[in-house]
Amino acid sequence: MKEIESILYTEEVIKEKCYELGKKISEDYSGELLVVGILKGAVPFMAELIKRIDLPIIIDFMDVSSYEGTTTSGEVRILKDLEFRVEGRDVLIVEDIIDTGLTLSYLTEVIKKRGAKSVEICSMLTKPKRRKVYVNAKYVGFEIDDKFVVGYGMDYNEKYRNLPYVGILSESVYK
Ligand SMILES: O=P(O)(O)OC[C@H]1O[C@H](OP(=O)(O)OP(=O)(O)O)[C@H](O)[C@@H]1O
Ligand SMILES: Nc1nc2[nH]cnc2c(=O)[nH]1
């Protein structure tokens, strides 16, 4: 696709990473795990990951928003809340990408305050150079540079989520 400058991770590579992460997660927990996907970007990654988790799990979703185009407003809003109560549960938040960290630091606090037994993060990607607030992500797929990426759930103005790979979006699309 001409809008994609280069492909960073193919479907095969992402699936292999999900296998590794799922194995670690399965080893780290013993009982039931509440897996919380953050809409919408986490959906393809979460679909792949949960198949590799060998534990009794419950899945739920939250929708929060802080991005418009390629910039963050810095303010996190809950657009859709969880169906299940988190009190006393082990919670694993699943994300597509950690950028400034604002979304996940906010969400982790919200879920802890609601009385979860534990809260951990599993993110497909992280951009450490962009961090504004500290986020303790126990499970991370890949570290990337400060480039705007799309595909495998990630969008630019709602487009490209269906690409079966993660690629760098050409600057000509948004400049
Ligand atoms: O670390 P941060 O700077 O907070 O950025 C990360 C957040 O940005 C993206 O979501 P977005 O708001 O674009 O929603 P989407 O998943 O529906 O695309 C991504 O899925 C994370 O939730
Ligand atoms: N699609 C997309 N969303 C983001 N949110 C924060 N960083 C990114 C990124 O690189 N790509």
UniProtKB/TrEMBL annotation:
* Residue ranges constituting the Phosphoribosyltransferase domain according to the UniProt record: 12-156
- Necessary cofactors: Mg(2+)
What Enzyme Commission number(s) appear in the record? 2.4.2.8
Q: Give the top-level enzyme category.
A: transferase
Show the catalytic activity: GMP + diphosphate = guanine + 5-phospho-alpha-D-ribose 1-diphosphate; IMP + diphosphate = hypoxanthine + 5-phospho-alpha-D-ribose 1-diphosphate
Cellular compartment(s): Cytoplasm
Q: Return the InterPro entries for the record.
A: HGPRT, Hxn_phspho_trans, PRTase-like, PRTase_dom
Classification via NCBIfam families: HGPRTase
* Sequence similarity: Belongs to the purine/pyrimidine phosphoribosyltransferase family.
Listed name of the protein: Hypoxanthine phosphoribosyltransferase
Organism whose genome encodes this protein = Anaerosphaera multitolerans
